[in-house]
């Protein structure tokens, strides 16, 4: 039921945005996660509680995978799952940047069927359903067309340019950066950037929604080996993420 799921995700994302805006630029309490997994704020936890109430309350038979909820693996026995990052780009949130997002997705049999990436401080609601296209605030999205890779602009963190990741040398594209992986994917779907990549093991909640939005905008999204990402894995990570319009194949070919 992708269409009714999308409506539910949109409503939940707007509620989450209201909560997060209340903490923004107010010096919320911050903790460092164990294992070098980065910071979490009281806003992340409050948003997570609200999303759980809104989404699981409406679909109690769906599994639950969220960055801010301990994974009990009960989701593996369900037919459909919510895959949630309450605030993707927590460092940006803490620093006062507007480039953080709520990332909400529904998966079925390993495939994302409905997705929302919402940036409350920009009032930007990116949405998609499987086979139903992608949109930003209701306007259709179209990923960028083919172009020479050396004139492309790609969203990527600096460590991804290390020579060890590339077959010869990294292509001479222009590099740009946004903290939130979900937002990077949405910007590719919008056509504002030619591609994005992250070459480390990637948590499903960071990219599940964005990958569907790129695909439904006519782009291509895969892991770093060019394979289709499968979701709701026992260990919820995929092998990096590469998403782009026409330069996707060139990016994959250039990788080691």
Number of domains: 2
Report the helical percentage.
25-40%
* Record field, number of beta strands: 16
The CATH topology of the largest domain turns out to be Fructose-1,6-Bisphosphatase, Chain A, domain 1
Stretches where pLDDT is under 50 for at least 5 consecutive residues are none
Instruction: Name the CATH superfamily classification of the largest domain.
Output: Fructose-1,6-Bisphosphatase, subunit A, domain 1
CATH architecture of the largest domain: 2-Layer Sandwich
The CATH class of the largest domain turns out to be: Alpha Beta
Give the CA-CA distance, first to last residue. Answer: 39 Å
- The H-and-E topology, N to C, reads as HEEHEEHEEEEEEEHEEHEEEH
**Rg, Cα atoms, Å:** 17 Å
Mean pLDDT: 96
What order do the strands of the largest sheet run in, or round the barrel if closed? Answer: 3-4-5-6-7-8-9
For this entry, what is the oligomeric state of its chains? Answer: single chain
Secondary-structure class: alpha+beta
Principal-axis shape equals globular
The major sheet is characterized as: 7 strands, mixed
Keywords: Hydrolase, Magnesium, Metal-binding
Cofactor: Mg(2+)
EC number: 3.1.3.25
GO biological process, one term: phosphatidylinositol phosphate biosynthetic process
């Amino acid at each position: 039921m992708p269409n009714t799921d999308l409506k539910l995700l949109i409503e939940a994302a707007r509620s989450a945005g209201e909560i997060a805006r209340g903490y923004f630029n107010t010096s919320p309490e911050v903790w460092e996660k164990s294992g070098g997994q980065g910071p979490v704020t009281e806003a992340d936890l409050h948003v997570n509680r609200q999303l759980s109430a809104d989404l699981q309350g409406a679909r109690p038979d769906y599994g639950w995978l969220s960055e801010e909820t301990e994974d009990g693996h009960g989701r593996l026995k369900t037919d459909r799952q919510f895959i949630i990052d309450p605030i993707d780009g927590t460092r940006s949130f803490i620093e006062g940047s507007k480039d953080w997002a709520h990332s909400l997705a529904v998966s079925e049999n390993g495939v994302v069927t409905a997705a929302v990436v919402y940036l409350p401080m920009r009032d930007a609601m990116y949405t998609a359903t499987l086979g139903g296209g992608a949109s930003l605030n209701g306007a259709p999205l179209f990923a960028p067309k083919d172009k020479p890779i050396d004139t492309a602009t790609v969203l990527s963190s600096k460590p991804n340019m290390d020579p060890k990741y590339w077959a010869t040398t990294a292509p001479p594209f222009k590099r740009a950066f946004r903290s939130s992986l979900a937002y990077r994917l949405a910007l590719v779907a919008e056509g504002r950037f030619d591609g994005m990549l992250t070459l480390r093991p990637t948590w499903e909640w960071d990219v599940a929604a964005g990958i569907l939005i790129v695909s439904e905008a006519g782009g291509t999204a895969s892991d770093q080996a060019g394979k289709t990402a499968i979701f709701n894995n026992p260990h919820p990570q995929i092998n990096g993420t590469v998403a782009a319009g026409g330069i996707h194949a060139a990016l994959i070919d250039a990788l080691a």
